[in-house]
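Supplementary notes for students who missed Thursday's class. We covered one full example, reproduced here. Read the sequence, then the structure, then the short commentary at the end.
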Amino acid sequence: MKKWWTVVLVGLLGLASAQKLVLASWGSQEEIKAYQEVLKVFQERHPGIQVEYINIPSGEYLAKITAMMAAGTPPDVFFLNNIDFPGMASRGVLAPLDAFIQRDKYPTADIFPGILRAFQWQGKQYGLPRDVSNLVVFYNRDLLRRAGLPDPKPDWTWEDFLRYAKALTVEREGKRVQWGVSFQTFYLFWQPWVWSAGGRFYSEDHSRFLLNSPSSLEGLQFYLDLRYRHRVAPTPEEAQDRGAFTMFLNGQTAMIVDGRWRVPTLKARAKFDFDVVPFPRGKAGSIVDIDGSGWVMAAGTRNPEAAWKLLSFLAGPEASRIFTRTGLIIPARGVDVRNVERSIQNLRDFFVPPPPKNQQYFLTVNRTARPTETFERWNEALQLINKALEPVWQGKAELKAALDGVAPQVQRILDEVQAERKRRR
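Structure (token representation):
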């Protein structure tokens, strides 16, 4: 039986006049505790509003939210990432927030502009973000020192990265026992190789599939070569079902491309000195994703005014500080990537004591970061791409042939999306 947690923060349960709201999200136990703290403060400020908080496992989240909507009982406010946002917005199930924002003069000036725009659809604001998510290279400083390597420089290149990875790969008696870098097949971790080579998944208007273009293939091939040509990343057989992060945490790999959410676990469990550095520069620069999550209001809510009070508080400065203290997120509010010193003052709760020493890179990489190339049927297209690339990651198929083979199917989806957009105009 599927398990999902329900935490009810009750307020004036005895008052029949109290407005009742349902808030839904996914998240770890640390995030559940943060929600409890945030909602306790909200409840004190708004005793006439009762909030039922539902935490749904991430793997079941969209299906559960969709089912609740189909049943006519959607959560009044729910958490959503910008990747799944276009699909929801295009179905008309979200309420625009512009009238509330304008009426209350709600502060949005200190929200990172890129992620604020990511929650806009057809010129309207449908969500307010909580966090931004990006990628950096985590590295095991102890293993670097053992190999005689200095800390990587923030402007290092792909060639530098490969040199480090080779020096950090250790072989004993003809068998690799340590690898320079972890290898992950989830799209989030290989799309920076595509972008930094000058490639794209799709054209900007999502009318053409470009993952099999020369620049995109160059980036993906470099990444694939880390595993099968240079042998500095473990093959599936060498990993033996050990996850990429587990291997890094255990000191079996020296570097990993990953996100801020790994910091609390590393601080608690890593038995080595670790730090972070920006993703290495390719032909087009160093480009990682800047995605994020935030709160939206269901179009079917029966209490829009109360739902707005809750949503605006969740996305506000006070709640942002509480969520930031967990160490799990990079807040969407208060980040000035052009002035790290100003951000340090704004985000005292973000710059928790080291490690990592170079936490400022979680902010500075956003200067060149870009959102995932998402669109209304992005998940459907990604499933086709993932299926085509699966034998490639296993070393059983050629990269270009696999992507050329799936291109017509993905292009068909893009053509249908373009036709649907024309119908909506």
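Commentary. The longest strand covers residues 19-25. The radius of gyration is 23 Å. If anything here is unclear, bring it to office hours.
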